[in-house]
Amino acid sequence: MITVALVDDQHLIRAGLRSLLASDRDLQVVAEASDGRRGVDTVLRTRPDVVLMDLRMPVMNGIEATRLIRAEESLAQTHVLVLTTFDDDRDVLEAVRAGAAGYLMKDAAGTELRDAVRRAASGERLLSPAILDRLLKIVASSPAAPEPDPRLSQLSERELEVLIRVGHGDTNEEIAGTLYISPATSRTYVSRILGKLGARDRTELAVIAYRSGLVR
Description:
- With about 220 residues, this protein is of the alpha/beta class.
- It contains ten helices and five strands.
- Keywords: DNA-binding, Phosphoprotein, Transcription, Transcription regulation.
- It comes from Arthrobacter caoxuetaonis.
């Protein structure tokens, strides 16, 4: 059973999410909260596998709530999925830095929502190509010009190829198909690159690839 907490200030949104999740027996909503502060308290109390977190809420926003949840050692196995709209671009970028495991559009279909929850619960980082494209445009609009990251010298030629594919938003399966390797080997490469670059997740890898000029 995968347990889920819903943190959103709109009752109708929470009701809709609850209904979409309820159609699968292995997903269970165990808690709800209407603002970030209550969300953190609720998550500390219930310790769900996944939190569906709105960004814009009263009392405490979703970015700060995500940061507090990810900083709590007892919640190391709790993963936060951010609920977003395209109006939240820069907020989503801040959520990356706060430690969100992935990003989901509020109008996502039920199958997409349930799949995202399962993948997040398993520890996978999620970033749709559409949201990745918006984030990289934010990075591109910053005044700093792309420049090589000295940490990239630690990577082998194959690891650089994998990093470039991550920068394009490819999944492990897509990387495997493009580079003619197995999905398990792809996962191993991504884990190795995360360690060498000291990156938190695939999103940070994508930003590194973009800022270094590997992806344009």
